[in-house]
Amino acid sequence: MTKPHVLQVGPYPEWDQVPLDAAYTVRRWWEAADKDAFLATVGPDIEAIATRGDLGASAAMIAACPNLKMISVFGVGYDAVHLASCKARGIKVSNTPDVLTEDVADIAVAMLLALVRRTGPAEAWVRSGDWAAKGMFPLTRKVSGTRAGILGLGRIGTAIARRLQGFGMEIAYSARAPKPGAEGWTFVPDAVALAERSDHLFVALAATAETRHIVNARVLQALGPEGTVINISRAANVDEAALLDALEGGKIAGAALDVFEGEPNLNPRFLTAPNVLLQPHHGSGTVDTRKAMGKLMRDNLSAHFAGQPLLTPVL
Ligand code: 8YV
To answer: Rounded CA gap, 269 and 283, in Å?
Structure first.
């Protein structure tokens, strides 16, 4: 019996690749020299697409697969999947939520501490001999007891808030509506009002057309010269030009970023901007979590081909 044909958009770790190749006829899109010609050839046989949160599946890719029934995303974010095409054709979509929540929340807190307590420059102070030559490292600002604003109190936003409570921080959040179970954290209807009452603004929203550039010049102005932005969601949630202007103009105190427009080819202005901590989109980047994400991505695929309900459907 022929194995179902699956279009794989980008590479996965070996621990996922081996079982995928064993179960399916895998067509590797990222290896194709001429991707359009490749899709024209293999597209008619494709029944499912296996992709990643950072790669998604475009309208053109979906259109080139007339027999496509399901897309399995490795990642919680599915903003790079052309959902309108899927809705129009009844194509099911799944993602990998929950298994990465704690790791992404951990990195968000680590980025806040590294940015505000300047652990990177402090290590450089030791390695360069400045400590011996120049004495104590310059004092930084406190983190504990300050005010945190969480933009998007979903699974990851909630996990961040829980951690920051341990730092004795005052927690406020913005979401479409007050969240049950978020008693003790202050609901604020919009991003500007949230920024006004925050020292550290965490961006933890799923990226949609509505949230595009939700962190804009007005929000950064409201955050003020002592404020910081921490983004572990998607770059599209932040107006990067406004952020760079605010950093270079001293309108905010700093930013810690795990995601960038056009990543990994980020805007070179970030490389020289003052007070910015740069991370390579590795929020979920632990072996345990990536194995769990891979298994869930594959389990959704096999559920589909077994005619079973998807484990974690988004469409
Ligand atoms: C993934 C992510 O690592 O889950 C997401 O949405 O952005 C990351 O956890 C990335 O999508 C991998 O492709």
So the answer is: 22
In this prediction the pTM is 0.96
Instruction: Report the nearest atom of ligand 1 relative to the CA of 10.
Output: 13
Angle of the 119-127 helix axis to the 101-116 helix axis, nearest 10: 60
Cβ(304) – ligand 1 distance below 6 Å: no
Report residue 2's pLDDT band, with 50, 70 and 90 as the boundaries: confident
* Pocket flag, ligand 1, residue 260 (CB < 6 Å): no
Rounded CA-CA distance 226/207 in Å is 26
Structure tokens at 162: 């829980």
CA 139 – ligand 1 centroid, Å: 35
For residue 146, give Cα distances in angstroms to 113, 149, 169, 170, 226: 12, 10, 5, 6, 11
Q: Which backbone phi and psi does 281 adopt, to 5 degrees?
A: 45, 60
Show Cβ contacts of residue 23 under 8 Å, excluding neighbours closer than 6 positions: 3, 298, 301, 302
Q: Which residue, among 187, 190, 184, 151, has the nearest Cα to 168 in the 3D structure?
A: 184
59-98: pLDDT as tens digits: 999 999 999 999 999 999 999 999 999 999 999 999 999 9
Cα separation, 257 vs 82, in Å, equals 25
Q: Is 56 in the pocket of ligand 1 (CB under 6 A)?
A: no
Distance CA 236, CA 259 (A): 9
Torsion of CA 70, 76, 81, 83, to 10 degrees: 70
Question: How wide is the angle at C-alpha 39 spanned by C-alphas 38 and 41, nearest 5°?
Answer: 65
What is the structure's pLDDT at 1? Answer: 72
